[in-house]
Structures are given as structure tokens and as C-alpha cells.
Amino acid sequence: MGITRLLRLNEGFGGVVLTPTATCVLSPSTDRDLMYAGGLAVVDCSWAQLETTAFKKLKYRHGRLLPYLVAANPVKYGQPFQLSCAEALAAGLYILNRPAQAIQLLDKFSWGHSFITLNQQLLDAYSQCSTSKELLEAQAQFMDKPKPDRGLATPHEEQAQGLEPSTVQDLSAKDAKLEAPLFPESTPTEPDQHQLESILSKQVDSLIDQFNRNKLIREAGKNWDRFYNRNGTRFFKDRHWTTREFTELLLLRAGPEQNHGRSEYAAPLSVLEVGCGVGNFLLPLLEDLVSSADGSCSSSDSNRDSHCLNRLTTASSVYACDISQRAVQMFNDRAFRSGLDCTAFVCDVSKDGALKEQLYQHQTSANHTVSSLDLVTLIFVLSALNPDDMVTCLKNIGSVLKPGGRLLFRDYGIHDHAQLRFGRGTRLSRERPSYARQDGTLSYFFEKSELEALFGEAGFRTVRCEYVYKHTTNVSENLSVRRVFLQAVAERPVEDQTLPA
């Protein structure tokens, strides 16, 4: 980047070294002089591999810990003490009275400005300290602040960038009128038109070039494999809100004999999750359905899980697919350990006809034909595709749904906080809100009318489509932001007896 250099493993360093193995925090008055004389360094290692990192080979004398700060990088966003190397260096520079250099360093990253914004109050307080003792007192003063009453936290889907809120509060229109804001000083509001135009203008003025745009689209599968190799099953939280938001999923538990004579669900039910990842949507759903499948299942029955599961799966066939081979492997491992019966396979749903072909190869029930699924879920998946491939994906789904079968959809809405956090050099198109994250995965933000048009072009009838507004609150940082999602149910028309073109 022109302002840092790489230190080799056995190279001695006389300045201040920020390392998780240090035993004391920064002491600004003395460490400032050490930094001026010898520089500032940070140990580059994975948080998941601290135990195996060869710290003993590093040659330095002045190892230091950073005080409490919160990460803003896409992988660890919102998590305390989980800073990237760039964030750690910037924090050290800021605390040791070099804020301009800290900002210069962070300007190299699209998310860099968010780190200063998240930690501004803390960084300013730390930079006023002279000794380690004063710095720890400033940290303790902040962490000992009484927190406002949080109320009841509700399950909530977070952005693919890994936001981990301490509290999530659903402030619907009716609730917003009745309840006081969690943090009066940082109550989230919809950005005004001037703010939006300023943010979006900066994004549009620095588009990703055509070569890198094509590379991102071409290597989508590889980028998701790298994502899951790096993050494993830890990145996304399990989603336990599914049956509350999509009551259609309760039909899996009821079985055909309890569906009140609905002819479209007279046969054994079948469901497919497109973009299953490591199973954060489907596997918790199956576990919840198993636990409530039969009230007569005694907790003392050693065969309880298998007995209840058999009652569920005799009425249902469960499938899942993902573009990432690594994700499917982890999905299958989780399902096996949980004793859940479902079939997962690799499929690139942006390729014409791919889903129908792969499902045919993996269907295990003679009672089902390729075009016989009752439900397909598409949860935070369409936004990860090249916009030009979205209709193909939806047509693929239509080709495996039976007439009357339904698509359950949830994804990012236009002007969601995640969209406004993207910086320069991240937008793929001037006309469409498609972005690339730092790890090479894509993101898109839908308008309601746009999604309904996509459904129509793919041969679906929109049953319902609505924005879902949430306020996500990180209590530890007194930060509250506005989230916008789009939730919909679409149906393959009952009178449609032909497969979509």
C-alpha cells in the first residue's frame, strides 16, 4: 500500500509490536517514543489459528495489547477485540497520536471509515491517556456504563458481511409509536435524499472495471468455496424464525393427512433449499419440526429423534443445493451428526437447466418427478448472483416446482445499511445496485417492483411481496442502524402445466 512493509519471521524489530500474546496494553507516553524511534508493527495471524502460530520465532521486545475496540471489517464486523491487521495498526497509530496516518491507512479499504466511526469515542478517550493504567481506566469506564433496557431480542437475519448485533429490535410502524428508542442519541433514521445521493454518487463514480467484473462473475463458485474454507460453519447464525415468517413451512410438519383437504398438498410434501450454505436455514427448521412432530414422543425414549424424524420424512422429501462444494460437504456433515435425513448436492442455479438436471440425479423417491416440489426456499441467495442471471435462476426454480408450488423468498432491500456501507470501487454497474465484497462474493439490493417484475418474467405469480424494516442495535457500541429486507412468496400458477422456457 506504500505505507507499510512486510517483516520477515526472523527479522528483529525494535519498535512497538501489537500482538495477542502480549501481557500489557499500550502505554501512550512511552510507546509513542518507541514508535517514533522504531516503528509500529502488528502480528498477522488468523484468530482461528492462534494456538499454532510460531510466536517464538518473532524477534521483538515491546509487545503490546490494544484496549477494547470493535471490528468493522466484513469478516468480524461488530465483534470486540477481533480486529484485522489494518484495523489494529490504525488503532495503534490513532492512540499514539498519529490519527492522520491511521485514516490514510484505512482509506485503502472500502469499509475503513466505518472503523473510526464505530470506535470514535473510545479512540479519542484512549489517545488522551498517558499510561497503561489510565488507558485501562478509560476502557473500564466505558465498559461499566449502564446499558439501556434492551427489551426482548428477536431472531433476525444479518447481512452476509457478518454483522453480529448484541441486540436486535424489530421496530415496526406500530411499535415505533409506542416504545422509546433504545439510544436517543443514535436513533437510526432513514438517510435523507442528500445523504443517499452523496453515498450512491461516490459508489457510481468508481465502478469496478470490466475485467475484474467478469472475473468476479466467472469465479463465483471459487469465491464461495474460499469463503467457507475460511469461515467454516461459524459465520452465519442458525435461523430459527423461518416458520414464523413463512407459515407454508408448517405444512411439512402437518403431513398430507392434516392439510385440510388441500388438493395441492394431497401427496407427500417435498421441499428444496436453493443456496443452502452450511445449513443455517434448513437444518434448524428440520430440527424444530422433529422436536414438535409428535407430542407423544417421550423425552426418555432413547429412539425419540429417529422416531419423530421418521414421522416427518415419511410425509416429506427434503433437498438442498449450493454452488460451493465445500458448503455442501459441511452441510452433509452437520446433517449426519444431527441424524437428519436430507439430500444435498452441488448446483450452479445461474446455468440454464442445471437445477432440473441435478435434482433428477439426486431424487431418492419414486413418488416424485422432477417437476413436483411443493416448496422452494431462496433466502439471501438471489442477491449473490450476477443480475443478468437472476431470471435464469428463477426459471430453474419454476422448472422443478409443481403447479401451485411456492417459492419462499427473503433478501436485501434497497438502501439497506449494508448497501450504504459499500465504498469506492465496489459497485459493478451504474444502473443496478450490484456490489462486490472484499472476499469476492456479490451482493444486490432489491426494489419491490423490480422483484415482482423478475417473478413475472420467470413465470411466477406474486402472492405477497413486502419490505421488512428492522433496527439492529449493537449495545456495546451504542450503535443502531436501519436494515431493509424484501420478503415474498411467489407461486407457479396452478393452470400452468408446462415447464417455463
Automatic annotation (TrEMBL):
Keyword terms, alphabetized: Methyltransferase, Transferase
Region (Disordered): 145-171
Compositional bias per record (Basic and acidic residues), positions renumbered to this chain: 145-159
GO molecular function, one term: S-adenosylmethionine-dependent methyltransferase activity
Domain (16S/18S rRNA aminocarboxypropyltransferase Tsr3 C-terminal): residue spans on this chain: 16-143
Gene3D superfamilies: Vaccinia Virus protein VP39 (3.40.50.150)
Gene Ontology biological process: methylation
Pfam families documented for this protein: Methyltransf_23, Ribo_biogen_C
Family listed: Belongs to the methyltransferase superfamily. METL family.
Name of the protein in question: Pre-rRNA-processing protein TSR3
Taxonomic lineage of the native organism: Eukaryota, Metazoa, Spiralia, Lophotrochozoa, Platyhelminthes
